[in-house]
Amino acid sequence: MLIIGELINGMFQDIARAIKDKDKSVIQKRALEQVDAGADALDVNCGPASAKPGSDIRWLIEAIREVTDKPLCLDSSKPQVIESGLEVLRGKAIINSTTADPEKLDILVPLAKKYNALLIGLTISTKGIPQNKDQRLELAAEILAFCSQADFPVEDLYIDPIVLPVNVAQAQMQGILEAIREFKVISTPSPKTIVGLSNVSQGTKSRGLLNRTFLTMALAYGLDAAILDPLDKDLMDSLITAELILNKNIYCDSYLDAYRRK
Ligand code: THG
Question: Which residues' Cβ are closer than 6 Å to ligand 1?
Answer without folding.
Answer: 6, 9, 11-13, 75, 96-97, 120, 160, 163, 196, 198-199, 202, 227
